[in-house]
């Protein structure tokens, strides 16, 4: 596999690789370090290649691929660089091909946000996310935009976003990239910008947004908070992650700009980190003033932001002060989410409210709150309760660690004592000594059999799964306990890598779904984070339900939507764990299916497709078979994910890579069908009964043992709105 520069080719292998790539690119050159210095052109007459002028082997050391578009004599070209080694020496494979007008126009259209005319999220995911560079990266988030939208109407909100995008553009350079990252969030990427110029331009952006005039709403003034970082050889996505951290600091006050030049001293301090969550700026300011001398303070003005910050900062947080009454997501909803994921076991939460009725207090404690503070605040009481709670949880963690150490020591000492006693007895009577040793071994064997007799309790739909035990991950490709077996395999077909997983469960409750947050929320989190939070042994992307507002959608027994779309085949999982499909669904088709199957209950359903195999028959995918909402057409090569049923409570997941570099081209639907047939041939005694293509492209994610495993060339785990996953129900 030619994944990156770590691959060491022979001269013959390098020549073969050049010949292979030359089938796609009319201009292909394999350049050594000396040639890069002496021949900085890419065979484009009259033009020098910017990617060679601006890059070096050292700059490429951490990159798998660099791609740039060039213009020469009115013709647009795509130039790609891939670092590798030949006979131990660093080289760069240069590939150049022309881009026709139609391709350029189509690409520009695909990557443009219709509302704001800047780059869209798809452009970020496919072009920017994994790019390594030296650049300034900024996250720009409008303050209280939801309130503006609700008050002035959606049309006014659309006008505002367009005006804000123009304002941001005025503050950055013409060569910089601007992406609409989310509803009211933008990402700016400024290559090779000095730190002082970067900070200055972010302040210009903030001022420009504040000065923005919204047609028809001239009296309304918008502000934006900005978090900005400088990256040096890191990926843009890593920069965005750090920028979001700074943005959370900036959100303490509307219109604030925070860069890593004035980076948070809180994270360089030994003070405990406390998160204050309250929609009232005054209340946050009061609590901040009370606690700032002894603690590093983070602030969130709503429940969604609070959950994001808990996920992001994790163990760094020492305490959360959580207001109950907030618009949108209430404090109780936040607490319930943290409790469901067992976060409150290690992170104390103190609820704050002006209401202190018995029912409110009782509900807070039932959901896992550590304490309850009523407004108006008494500074002495607040400081004491915060201090006591943090110290109590710290002591609890220390005691747990100490008990674990003591237990292990006792086990060790007991074994030593048995060995000593057996040795002493053997000196007096060899048979007795051997008897003691044998009894110990027999006892160990009997104890080892006991776990197999443990009860495996099915999970209720709203019941959280327990974490899988580490000892059952017997290798990087295998998990096995009495309730769940996962076997991972891999292969390559059609010049594309694929990974597959065979899953066997003991009970239907072990195949489950989870949303990043609640239905209709735009919140997304990395697939790896969602898998870990839900104690998944193996997880994959679901159908990115929050991207659209139609389809037949059921999750964990709750029906959220009954608006089927004919272009999307529906996959359903019933209460027995069996898979069913409806091809080209309509509302009537779904209703007819339910009428024909009164004994079956749909626990989870997905909208994407197409169905690749049904009733044991391959559908013979062709290039014109399907073209769904995401334009994942049959003839185009994409990353793809298939969910298959092999037998009762036995499943197959297959994922192929996308066009991440020349190493994997992605697959058409026809090629993917052939991939599934190849995998089927590797299964001992199993035949695929049903196969369904679930989402694809940048969403394609398979997580095993809390790590992404379905892409060797791009291990980043993208943000998802939902997952399909498998859990254990075994406990010793």
Write the layout of secondary structure elements.
Blueprint lengths: L7 E2 L1 H11 L5 E6 H6 L11 H5 L11 E7 L2 E12 L2 E11 L1 H10 L10 H8 L3 E11 L2 H8 L1 H18 L5 E4 L4 E7 L3 H16 L13 E12 H15 L6 E3 L13 E5 L3 H11 L4 E5 L2 H11 L3 E7 L7 H10 L8 E5 L4 H9 L4 E4 L4 H50 L1 H20 L23 E3 L2 E4 L2 E10 L2 E10 L5 E5 L9 E2 H7 L4 E4 L9 E5 L2 E6 L5 E6 L4 E4 L4 H10 L5 E7 L2 E4 L2 E2 L21 E8 L2 E7 L12 H14 L7 E7 L5 E3 L2 E2 L10 E2 L1 E5 L6
Parallel strand pairs: 1-4, 9-10, 11-12, 11-13, 13-14, 14-15
Antiparallel strand pairs: 2-5, 3-4, 4-5, 6-8, 6-9, 7-8, 16-17, 17-18, 18-19, 19-31, 20-36, 21-35, 22-33, 22-36, 23-24, 25-26, 25-27, 28-29, 28-32, 30-31, 30-32, 33-34
Helix pairs in contact: 6-7, 7-8, 11-12, 14-15
Commentary on this structure:
This protein is of the alpha+beta class and 732 residues long. The longest helix is centred in the middle third of the chain and has 50 residues. It starts with 7 loop residues before the first strand and ends in a 6-residue tail after the last strand. The strands form eight sheets. It has a nine-stranded antiparallel sheet with strand order 16-17-18-19-31-30-32-28-29. It has five domains: 93 residues, Beta-Lactamase (2-Layer Sandwich); 153 residues, Reverse transcriptase/Diguanylate cyclase domain (Alpha-Beta Plaits, 2-Layer Sandwich), CATH 3.30.70; 111 residues, Rossmann fold; 58 residues; 249 residues, no CATH class. Helix 7 packs antiparallel against helix 8. It has 18 helices and 36 strands.
């Amino acid at each position: 596999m030619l994944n990156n520069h770590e691959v060491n080719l022979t001269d013959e292998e390098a020549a073969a690789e050049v010949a292979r790539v030359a089938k796609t690119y009319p201009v292909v050159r394999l350049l050594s370090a000396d040639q890069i210095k002496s021949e900085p052109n890419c065979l484009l007459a009259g033009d020098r290649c910017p990617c060679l002028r601006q890059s070096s082997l050292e700059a490429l050391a951490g990159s798998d691929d660099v791609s740039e578009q060039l213009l020469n004599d009115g013709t647009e070209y795509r130039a790609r660089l891939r670092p590798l080694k030949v006979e131990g020496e660093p080289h760069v494979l240069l590939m150049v091909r022309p881009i026709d007008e139609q391709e350029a126009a189509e690409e520009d259209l695909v990557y443009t946000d219709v509302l704001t005319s800047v780059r869209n999220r798809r452009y970020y995911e496919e072009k920017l996310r994994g790019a390594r560079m030296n650049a300034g990266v900024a996250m720009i988030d409008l303050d209280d935009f939801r309130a503006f939208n609700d008050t002035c109407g959606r049309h006014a909100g659309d006008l505002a976003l367009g005006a804000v995008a123009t304002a941001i553009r005025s503050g950055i350079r013409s060569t910089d990239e601007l992406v609409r990252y989310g509803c009211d969030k933008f990402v700016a990427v400024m290559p090779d910008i000095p730190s002082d110029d970067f900070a200055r331009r972010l302040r210009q952006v903030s001022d420009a947004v504040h000065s923005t005039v919204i047609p028809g709403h001239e009296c309304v003034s918008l502000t934006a908070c900005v978090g900005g970082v400088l990256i040096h050889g890191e990926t843009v996505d890593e920069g965005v992650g750090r920028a979001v951290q700074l943005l959370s600091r900036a959100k303490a006050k509307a219109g604030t700009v925070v860069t890593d030049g004035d980076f948070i001293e809180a994270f360089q301090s030994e003070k405990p980190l406390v998160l204050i969550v309250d929609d009232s700026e005054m209340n946050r300011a009061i609590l901040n003033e009370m606690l700032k001398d002894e603690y590093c303070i983070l602030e969130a003005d709503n429940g969604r932001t609070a959950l994001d910050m808990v996920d992001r900062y994790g163990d760094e947080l020492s305490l959360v002060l959580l207001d109950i009454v907030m618009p949108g997501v209430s404090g109780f909803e936040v607490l319930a989410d943290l409790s469901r994921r067992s976060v409150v076991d290690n992170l104390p939460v103190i609820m704050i409210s002006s209401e202190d009725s018995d029912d409110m207090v009782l509900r807070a404690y039932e959901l896992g709150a550590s304490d309850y503070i009523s407004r108006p605040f008494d500074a002495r009481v607040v400081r004491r309760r915060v201090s006591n709670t943090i110290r109590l949880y710290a002591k609890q963690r220390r005691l747990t660690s100490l008990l674990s150490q003591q237990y292990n020591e006792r086990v060790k000492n007991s074994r030593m004592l048995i060995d000593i006693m057996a040795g002493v007895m053997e000196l007096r009577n060899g048979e007795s000594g051997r008897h003691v040793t044998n009894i110990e071994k027999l006892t160990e064997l009997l104890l080892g059999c006991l776990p197999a007799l443990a009860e495996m309790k099915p999970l209720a739909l709203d019941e959280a799964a327990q974490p899988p035990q580490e000892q059952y991950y017997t290798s990087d490709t295998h998990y096995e306990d009495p309730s769940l077996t996962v076997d991972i395999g891999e292969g390559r077909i059609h010049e594309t890598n694929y990974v597959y997983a065979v899953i066997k469960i003991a009970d239907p409750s072990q195949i489950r779904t989870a949303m990043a947050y609640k239905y209709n929320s735009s919140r997304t989190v990395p697939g790896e984070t969602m898998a870990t939070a839900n104690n998944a042994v193996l997880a994959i992307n679901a159908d990115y339900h929050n991207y659209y507002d139609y389809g037949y959608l059921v999750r964990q027994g709750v029906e959220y939507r009954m608006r089927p779309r004919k272009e999307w085949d529906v996959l359903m999982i019933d209460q027995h764990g069996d898979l069913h499909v409806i091809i080209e669904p309509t509302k009537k088709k779904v209703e007819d299916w339910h009428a024909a199957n009164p004994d079956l209950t749909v626990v989870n359903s997905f909208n994407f497709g197409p169905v690749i195999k049904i009733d044991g028959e391959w559908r013979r995918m062709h290039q014109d078979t399907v073209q769904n909402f995401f334009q994942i057409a049959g003839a185009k090569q994409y990353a793809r994910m298939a969910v298959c049923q092999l037998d009762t409570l036995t499943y197959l997941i297959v994922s192929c890579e996308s066009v991440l570099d020349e190493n994997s081209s992605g697959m058409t639907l026809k090629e993917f069908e052939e991939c599934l047939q190849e995998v089927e041939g590797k299964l001992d005694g199993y035949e695929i009964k049903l196969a369904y293509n679930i989402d694809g492209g940048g969403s394609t994610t398979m997580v095993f043992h809390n790590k992404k495993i379905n892409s060797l060339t791009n291990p980043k785990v993208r943000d998802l709105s939902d997952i399909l996953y498998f859990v254990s129900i075994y406990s010793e």
